[in-house]
């Protein structure tokens, strides 16, 4: 069990209190009378025009070149606690040294880490909330940050630029993802709703939010909402395009926890909502601070050109082909 024996832990307890007060009421679920199509009955905002999740159609996105998305404090080892809140498993961490993100589409401020949690489905063909080209991923991680100017999650959810959520997609694979073993092995200990447990060893956010080989500048971004009641439209979403991998068995472990509705929480993703008048941007970095700059920048530029003048490029390709054909005939 979690025992507040040090000021270190007291900080964590304080944050838990804030998280809990910001949490929605208990009466929502993912099935039947309490399911997503009824959330609007109790929470007017859930039928707003800028809701999440959405389907991201790659041929409809607008390319953009934001400044580099930056992270700080992710390498700090943190005492961490996991909670089954009846809707997901949520991790909160000691933040006496805050973890922050800034830059990218977050032009007007710094955002501070609050918690992270997961969404999954009944099987590995569904589970993510946002979709890409109507493709569902098996799982999605949400890392929730609030704008530092607003000082707390509770205050931030009352401002249109209050929150930033980093979304990571997962595909199912045969190989276990070792970083996630720490979480998967503790899940049976939070099977019951409202149960909590503390990780034996401290966790480092970078293991989850900055995994090796993931291009953190390749993302989609758009304005949306919390995907659970009260569905507040206060979130800048940043969805990393490349999926991570978990084994089928690791994903299955999440389906073993109990839900607020008294069954197994086999799925907890909200269906996609209309895009309405919103634009989804795809970040094409103009310059990246890593040794592969040249290549990545070149590839990005190429993609941008391809996107901006696809028809023109096709015309050029056709012309080159015709010249080549004419030369071949002539040489014969
Ligand atoms: Zn979420």
Give your account of this protein's structure.
- The chain is an alpha+beta fold.
- The chain has two domains: 280 residues, Alpha carbonic anhydrase (Carbonic Anhydrase II); 41 residues.
- It is 24% helix and 26% strand.
- The protein has eight helices and 17 strands.
- Strands 2, 3, 5, 6, 7, 8, 10, 11, 12, 14, 15, 16 and 17 form a 13-stranded mixed beta sheet that branches. It has a two-stranded parallel ribbon with strand order 1-9.
- The longest helix has 22 residues.
- The relative contact order is 0.19.
- The N terminus and C terminus are likely disordered.
- Zinc ion binds next to strand 8.
Provide a quick synopsis of the model.
It contains eight helices and 17 strands. It has 332 residues and is an alpha+beta fold.
Largest sheet: 13 strands, mixed
Rough outline: globular
Structural class label: alpha+beta
Helix/strand order, N-terminal first: HHEEEEEEEEEEHEHEEHEEEHEHH
């Amino acid at each position: 069990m979690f025992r507040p024996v040090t000021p270190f832990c007291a900080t964590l307890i304080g944050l838990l209190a804030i998280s809990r007060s910001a949490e929605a009421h208990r009466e929502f679920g993912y099935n039947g009378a309490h399911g997503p199509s009824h959330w609007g009955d109790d929470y007017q905002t859930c039928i707003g025009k800028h809701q999440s999740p959405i389907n991201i159609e790659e041929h409809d996105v607008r390319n953009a070149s934001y400044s580099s998305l930056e992270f700080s404090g992710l390498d700090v080892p943190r005492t961490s606690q996991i909670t089954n809140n009846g809707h997901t498993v949520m991790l909160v961490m000691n933040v006496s040294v805050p973890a922050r993100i800034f830059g990218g589409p977050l032009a007007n401020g710094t955002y501070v880490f609050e918690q992270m949690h997961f969404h999954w489905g009944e099987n590995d063909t569904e589970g993510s909330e946002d979709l890409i080209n109507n493709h569902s991923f098996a799982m999605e991680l949400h890392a929730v940050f609030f704008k530092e100017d607003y000082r707390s999650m509770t205050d931030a959810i009352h401002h249109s630029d209050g929150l930033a959520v980093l979304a990571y997609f997962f595909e199912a694979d045969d190989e276990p993802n070792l970083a996630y073993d720490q979480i998967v092995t503790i899940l049976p200990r939070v099977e019951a709703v409202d149960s909590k447990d503390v990780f034996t060893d401290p966790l480092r956010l970078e293991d989850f939010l900055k995994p090796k080989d993931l291009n953190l500048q390749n993302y989609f971004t758009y304005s949306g909402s919390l995907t659970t009641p009260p569905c507040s439209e206060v979130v800048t979403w940043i969805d990393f395009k490349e999926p991570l991998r978990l084994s089928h068995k690791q994903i299955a472990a999440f389906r073993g926890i109990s839900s607020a509705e008294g069954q197994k929480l086999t799925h907890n993703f909200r269906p996609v909502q209309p895009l309405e008048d919103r634009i989804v941007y795809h970040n094409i970095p103009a310059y990246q601070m890593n040794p592969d700059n040249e290549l990545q920048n070149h590839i990005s530029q190429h993609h941008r050109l391809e996107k901006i003048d696809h028809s023109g490029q096709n015309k050029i390709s056709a012309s080159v082909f015709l010249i080549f054909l004419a030369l071949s005939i002539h040489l014969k």
